Amino acid sequence: MKIRPLKKEDYTDCVHLLNQSFDEKYISLEQLEKEILKNTLFYGAFEKSELIGCVGLLQKSEESYKIVRLAVHPNYRHKGYGEKLIAHAENTAILNGGTKMSLAFLVPNESLKNWYLNLGYEMEKTKKYKNTEKSICFAKKKLPKTPPYGGLNKRVPCCSQCGFPEKVCICKIHPKLASPNKFVIIMHPEEVGRTTNTGRLIKNAFPNNTEIFYWHRTTINYNLKKALKDNDYHKILVFPPDKEEYDHKAISRDMIKEISTDKNIMFIILDGTWKEARKILKKSSYLKDIQMLDLDIDFKTEYYLRRNKDLGHICTVEVAIELLKLVGESENAHELHKYFQSFLLRYDQGRRM
Ligand SMILES: [Zn+2]
Prior knowledge:
The chain has 353 residues and is an alpha/beta fold. Helix content is 32%, strand content 24%. The protein has two domains: 2-142, Aminopeptidase; 166-352, Alpha/beta knot (3-Layer(aba) Sandwich). A seven-stranded mixed beta sheet has the order 1-2-3-4-5-7-6, sandwiched between helices. It has a six-stranded parallel beta sheet with strand order 9-8-12-10-13-11, with helices on both faces. The radius of gyration is 22 Å and the shape is globular. Zinc ion binds next to loops.
């Protein structure tokens, strides 16, 4: 099963799915398109290429979000798809700075109510629904600061935050570091919840000067937009400008050293696989004018959790370690490196339990 944003060609299937799940006249194509235009992000759950579930996420204010139009095809119910769609919507909200989630559903429906209670929702109030016997129940939930990661090992209890087995959890072993420079991590949606993700290690170690934003294909997160406008920092996008079209924006390691002596730097790092990072760069016009640094790595990565081990391909936290060295923060680089090594060790231990 794969969850991804709905594309225009999926809209008709989505309307069909919603009407099959509720009743025939639940929603029209026009209505769905209107909601998407009005800023509801819709995600679909796909089994092979068939749309079997969907969820809408509506931003109500800077920090509060609402789940709307959650549906799972009748043939695919009670298999965990609904939980996964809810988790996807919640994680998206968290990574966009959301702290609160709300939703509403028709009652009486005890099993649905219990289902939401199990997912951590609190029932707020019920209101009579139009001219029917039914009422709407409003529920809410306080979101955690970082998205929870899927369990690394199904045989033992795993930490609900990092996904590692509780005995080797990485949540509390991080160094507490500070830097005058800043990291802005733009995370590809596929990266969310991957236990192998290392971008989160930077945030854990530098909580006050790291911001993680979740990338979206067609919109830019409000807080990311704000962060990119911050002129207190010299902005550098870390990415090899290996194509001619990016050449004019290339900046060298030596130039970075020079800049860092009189201005703090905001390092913008794209967090995802090589392919995902390229996609982010290509599809995000707001990154077009930012100078680019090619770290030009000549050593082999220590990261063995994923396949891409080409020379020069290092993982996200290794990028940050290199950048810290570059701006003369060798002690910070050393501490972050030690944390990364503990992460790898604990990953290994966690898998074998
Ligand atoms: Zn943990």
